[in-house]
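One chain given next:
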Amino acid sequence: MSTAYWCVLIAAILPYVWVAVAKMRPGYNNRNPRAWVARSDNYVVQRANAAHLNAFENFAPFAAGVVLAQLAGVDPATVNPLAIAFVVFRVLHGVLYVGDKPLPRSLAWLGGFACSVALIVLAAQAAGR
């Protein structure tokens, strides 16, 4: 199960990767970073910030799914590949978001979401036995 736990850590760090991409743009102002992002007309700033927010939104269900699966005794051989797939989908999602590729980005989002749902469903099934 430690692989899945490492994936939770990676997923927890991902939002900060995307916001770092946004803040590396010229003119970044740390006095009021949210206002700076809101005023920015820089394409990369806006898209990286959106990826940052979306990464936070998707972290909680994934982390809960991993913890619930572990508590319910789901086989790590099932949990670990789902956790790895989630991280891969989420990295792709951010890259595609910044790169303005809406359809593949949405498919990457769907893949990550499906992994989170699968983990929770597997936990519920295991707990019901």
